[in-house]
Amino acid sequence: MEKSERKKHWETVFQTKDTTKASWFQPIPETSLNLIDKLKLAKTAKIIDVGSGDSYLGNFLLKKGYSNITLLDISEKALDTIKKRLSDKAEKITFLADDVTDFSTSDTYDLWHDRAVFHFLTDETDIQKYVNNVSDKITSGGFLILGTFSNNGPDMCSGLKVQQYSENQLTKIFSTRFEKIECFTENHQTPSGSGQNFLFCVFRKT
After folding, report:
1. pTM
2. Minimal CB count within 10 Å: which of 80, 129, 167, 172?
């Protein structure tokens, strides 16, 4: 899918959907928060959440005292929703409306977090762009937390075909620049009550 098509799709989703009923919605992103806690990062660590949508992760990171947070999403509408929800606290967060495969910044990050974006990249060129971007933008010794649909997860989401992954597949894709710390699967219960099986992996940049 071309970048312009991706942007059009996700702007439409966030403009027309009640995302509290969307399959990916989490009132509390417990798994992500637990994984971040385990890394024992300094509160000044530079954290980027890519494909943030209008999630609550930024809210909880602020509550935990993290002071250097960037939220990136291709949808400006999604980011505007977070800004309105945070009100004056939004000034404490950097917002980037761009595509995860090729966004440009001089910043590098101690932690790159991605829950449910990578699996939407089904073209090999886009996948490699993502891998190159994450490799360039994580500091040496920094971390990558990646959540994708497992081989037991859905093959479609939000009207788009997705790529499912096994632990071995995901590890191999990032093996050139990253070492695996841990991987596990878990079931995410959607607002409708159905289940989606996710694979979470934590990597450290070598």
Report:
1. 0.96
2. 172
Rounded to an integer, what distance in angstroms lies between the CA atom of residue 155 and that of residue 59?
A: 30
The overall average pLDDT reported for the chain is: 95
The whole-number average pLDDT for the span 176-191 is 96
What's the pLDDT at 16? 94
**Residues found in the chain:** 206
How far is the C-alpha of 151 from the C-alpha of 148, rounded, in Å?
10
CATH superfamily of the 3-13+43-172+194-205 domain: Vaccinia Virus protein VP39 (3.40.50.150)
Q: Are 85 and 58 in contact (CB under 8 A)?
A: no
CA distances from 65 to 6, 37, 60 (A): 33, 12, 9
CA 187-52-62 angle, to 5 degrees, is: 100
Distance CA 25, CA 66 (A): 23
CA–CA separation, 24 vs 194, rounded Å? 11
**pLDDT class for 2, splitting at 50, 70, 90?**
confident
The answer to whether residues 71 and 49 touch, using CB atoms and an 8 Å cutoff, is yes
